[in-house]
Amino acid sequence: MGRKILETLTExxxxxxxxxxxxxxxxxxxxxxxxxRTKSRVRLGPxxxxxxxxxxEEVGLIRETAVEGRKRTYVLTxxxxxxxxxxxxRLRSCLxxxxxxxxx
Length: 104
What we know:
Blueprint: H1 11-19, E1 25-26, H2 27-37, H3 46-59, E2 62-68, E3 71-76, H4 78-102
């Protein structure tokens, strides 16, 4: 993850934020949500997922809410929700550009 975390999000990062929009989840629940939501097009391995979670927690996009043994639960912060919304606007703009260019 060489790019700055608050610039363009990777697809995996975007889906991690999406997974936390409506409820707190642990890592396994996040990975399951992403796989189900994308029909397994995006699959988060433990290394990728926990690297993203650590980075998001470090910059304040998520916070840990509970720890039960090895299970850690995360919630989206207000900053994380705002970052998700910013990325959604960017992605919609990209899609609009692509659709416009595809017109004959």
